[in-house]
Design goal:
- The protein has a single domain, classed as 2-Layer Sandwich (Alpha-Beta Plaits).
- The protein contains seven helices and four strands; from the N terminus they run E-H-H-E-H-H-E-H-H-E-H.
- The protein is of the alpha+beta class.
- The two termini are 18 Å apart.
- 40% of the residues lie in helices and 20% in strands.
- It binds guanosine-5'-diphosphate.
């Protein structure tokens, strides 16, 4: 079933010049880029986006990192998009990520790990709505 998911090319990957290479991996894996925009987000916006992690010890550091430079916000579409993007991303910690995954190739650490992808249908709906207006999703 065609499905949409939300993804971010995180500030570490943008800083290192990996945006094009990561987009190529995403398209090679069969995703259609429904919408994409570059943004510099505030720490408050990052906190709202990651509210489910508010009690985790790394929350402050994560939100500082996500607001440390430009990133790319994306809505992606394909059959089974949510699970397939998670597979393509690889494990949160690049040390545990499988060969060929985006995080294995482009992530530097468990925090600065190159890419975000929604982890479920409810999360994808919340995350797409957090960053995109309906009229941007064409
Ligand atoms: P994801 O779904 O693989 O992105 O992982 P999570 O939802 O568990 O965590 C969200 C983000 O928080 C991760 O992508 C990392 O950027 C960061 N993160 C997760 N675990 C840790 C950790 O143990 N330490 C630090 N510093 N950051 C973490």
């Amino acid at each position: 079933m065609t499905q949409r998911t939300f993804s971010i090319i995180k500030p570490d990957a943008v800083r290192k010049g990996y945006t094009g290479a990561i987009l190529a991996e995403i398209e090679k894996a069969g995703f259609k880029i429904v919408s994409i925009k570059k943004a510099s987000i505030s720490k408050e916006q990052a906190k709202g986006f990651y509210y489910v992690h508010a009690q985790r010890p790394f929350f402050e550091d994560l939100c500082t990192f996500m607001s440390s430079g430009p990133l790319f916000l994306m809505v992606l579409e394909k059959d089974n998009a949510i699970a397939d993007l998670r597979t393509l991303m690889g494990a949160t910690n690049p040390a545990n990520a499988e060969e060929g995954t985006i995080r294995k190739q482009f992530a530097g650490s468990i925090q600065e790990n190159a890419i975000h992808g929604s982890d479920g249908e409810d999360t994808a709906a919340f995350e797409i709505g957090y960053w995109f207006a309906g009229c941007e999703l064409i």
